[in-house]
Automatic annotation (TrEMBL):
GO terms for cellular component: plasma membrane. The keyword Phosphoprotein applies. This is histidine kinase. One of its GO terms (molecular function) is phosphorelay sensor kinase activity. The chain crosses the membrane at residues 162-183. It is an enzyme of class 2 (transferase). The keyword Glycosyltransferase does not apply.
Length: 458
C-alpha cells in the first residue's frame, strides 16, 4: 500500500516538475539567445557609425583599432568591406567570415538592403551568428560591416540555467519524496496498527485494542469502529465462555448421577446385559471427556494443544458400534472398510465428535435397507476417513452450502434436524488442522472426507 501511495503522489509531482522545468528551461534559453542577439545588433550599429566616418575619410585605422580590441575582448570578428565588396578594414580573423553565405549577404547589403536578423532557436543549433549591415552615406551604400559573433558565452549561460533548473528539479523531487514518505507513514501508521491488532485477535488476544490519536480523521473513525467491534466480540465470547462453563458444570452433576445409577442397576442385571452396560459406561466416559474439553475451552479460550497417538481404525470401529443400535432402528447397515491399524497424533475427543456428526447425518438421510460405508486409509502422511452413504444427495451447486450453518436442502426440509451437523464437524476438524470435503459420487448419496494431518494437528 505504501508503494502505491508513493507512486500516486510522486508521479504527478514529477510530471509537473518536468512540464514547468522544461518550459522554464526553454524560455530561459530563448531569452539568453535574444539578449545576445540584441547586444550584437547594438555593437554592429556602433561599428557602422565608425565605418561611415572611416570610409568617408579613407582612413581604415579609424575602425581597425576598435575592431581588433573588440575581437580581443569578445572573440568576435569584424570586417568592413568597401563598395566593391573587398575587405577594407578588419579586426580578428577575417578568413572565417567571408565564406559563400556571408558573401551573398554582403552583396545584398551593398545593394542597399538589410538582411534578416538571426532569430532564437534550439540551443543545440545556436552555434554562431553572422550579421551584415550596410553603411549608407546620403542614401547610398558605400560599404558594409560584417560581424561574426562567438556564441560560447551564450551557450555557457544557457547551460548554467539548465543546470540550475535540473538541480532545482532534483531538490524539489527529493523534498517531495521526503514529504510523500512522511505523509504515507502518517496515513498508514493507523492501518498497520489495525493489522497488528487483527493479528493479535486472531491469535486469541481478544483484549487487543488500537489507540485512535493519530492518522487522518477517516482512519480514526475506522479505528473507533474497529475497537467497538472488538469490544462486542469480546463481550460475545465472554458470554459464550460463561455459558460453556455453566452448561458444563450443570451437566456434570446429572451425568455423574446417571453413571452412578447405571452402576447401581448393573448389580441387579444378568450377564446378558454386560455388553450393554459396558457400552453405556463408555458413552458416559466419553461424555465426561467432552465436558472436560468444554471446560478447558471456556477457561482458556482455546483448545489445549495436546496431541495423543490415536488408532483411527479402532476409534472408527468404536463409534460405529455406538451408532449401530440407532442405525438398526433405521434399518441402515454400518460397514467399516479397512481393519489395519492406522495411527496418528491428534485429539481423540475432537475426531470422535466430528465423526459422530457425520455418521448421524449419514444415518438420518439414508433410505431403509441401504448401508453407510466408512473407509479408513493412510494418505500422504495423514489419515483419510470417508463416510459414504446412499441417501438422496444434493445437486452439484448445493455442495458448497452443506457446511453452512442451518442450511438444508429444499428436498429434505421434512427430515428432522437443524442443519448444524456438517457445519460443526467442519469446525471441529479445522480446529485440529484437518479438512472436511464433501463429494457427490456417482450412484447418489454423499461422500464426506475427513482429512487428518499430523503436521498441523501436532
Amino acid at each position: 500500500m505504501r508503494r502505491r501511495l508513493v507512486v500516486v503522489f510522486l508521479v504527478p509531482l514529477i510530471a509537473v516538475l518536468l512540464v514547468l522545468g522544461g518550459a522554464y528551461a526553454w524560455s530561459a534559453a530563448r531569452s539568453i539567445q535574444q539578449e545576445h542577439i540584441t547586444e550584437l545588433v547594438g555593437d554592429v550599429a556602433y561599428f557602422v557609425t565608425n565605418a561611415r566616418q572611416a570610409l568617408r575619410s579613407g582612413s581604415p585605422e579609424l575602425v581597425t583599432r576598435e575592431a581588433e580590441r573588440y575581437a580581443e575582448v569578445y572573440g568576435t570578428g569584424v570586417v568592413v568591406v568597401d563598395r566593391s565588396g573587398a575587405p577594407w578594414a578588419t579586426g580578428g580573423d577575417d578568413a572565417t567570415v567571408l565564406d559563400e553565405a556571408t558573401t551573398a549577404q554582403i552583396q545584398l547589403a551593398l545593394a542597399g538592403r538589410r538582411g534578416d536578423l538571426p532569430q532564437p532557436g534550439a540551443p543545440w543549433e545556436f552555434t554562431e551568428l553572422v550579421i551584415v549591415e550596410p553603411v549608407f552615406d546620403n542614401g547610398d551604400a558605400i560599404g558594409a560591416v560584417v560581424v561574426e559573433a562567438n556564441v560560447d558565452v551564450a551557450r555557457e549561460a544557457i547551460l548554467e540555467q539548465w543546470v540550475l533548473v535540473l538541480f532545482g528539479a532534483v531538490l524539489a523531487t527529493s523534498v517531495g519524496l521526503v514529504i510523500v514518505f512522511r505523509l504515507s507513514d502518517w496515513v498508514l501508521r493507523p492501518v498497520r496498527r489495525v493489522d497488528r491488532a487483527m493479528e493479535a485477535i486472531e491469535r486469541g488476544e481478544i483484549e487487543s485494542r488500537i489507540a485512535d490519536d493519530t492518522g487522518p480523521p477517516e482512519l480514526r473513525r475506522m479505528i473507533l469502529l474497529f475497537n467497538r467491534m472488538a469490544d462486542e466480540i469480546e463481550r460475545t465470547m465472554s458470554r459464550q465462555q460463561e455459558f460453556a462453563l455453566n452448561a458444563s458444570h450443570e451437566l456434570r452433576n446429572p451425568l455423574s448421577a446417571l453413571l452412578v445409577r447405571v452402576e447401581h442397576l448393573a448389580t441387579g442385571l444378568g450377564d446378558e446385559w454386560t455388553r450393554d452396560i459396558e457400552e453405556t459406561r463408555e458413552e458416559g466416559r466419553r461424555m465426561t471427556r467432552i465436558l472436560d474439553t468444554l471446560l478447558n475451552l471456556a477457561r482458556s479460550g482455546q483448545r489445549d494443544a495436546v496431541a495423543d497417538r490415536v488408532d483411527i481404525t479402532e476409534l472408527v470401529r468404536s463409534r460405529l458400534d455406538a451408532w449401530r443400535q440407532r442405525a438398526t432402528q433405521a434399518r441402515v447397515s454400518l460397514v467399516l472398510r479397512g481393519d489395519a491399524p492406522v495411527s496418528i497424533a491428534t485429539d481423540r475427543v475432537i475426531v470422535e465428535s466430528a465423526l459422530d456428526a457425520v455418521i448421524d447425518n449419514a444415518v438420518k438421510f439414508s433410505p431403509s435397507g441401504t448401508r453407510v460405508v466408512v473407509t479408513v486409509a493412510e494418505s500422504d502422511g495423514g489419515v483419510d476417513i470417508v463416510v459414504r452413504d446412499n441417501g438422496p444427495g444434493v445437486d452439484t451447486e448445493e455442495l458448497a452450502h452443506l457446511t453452512d450453518r442451518f442450511w438444508r436442502s429444499p428436498r429434505n426440509r421434512s427430515t428432522p434436524g437443524s442443519g448444524l451437523g456438517l457445519a460443526i464437524a467442519t469446525d471441529l476438524v479445522h480446529s485440529i488442522g484437518g479438512k472436511l470435503r464433501i463429494e457427490a459420487p456417482d450412484g447418489g448419496g454423499l461422500a464426506v472426507h475427513l482429512r487428518l494431518s499430523p503436521e498441523l494437528a501436532a
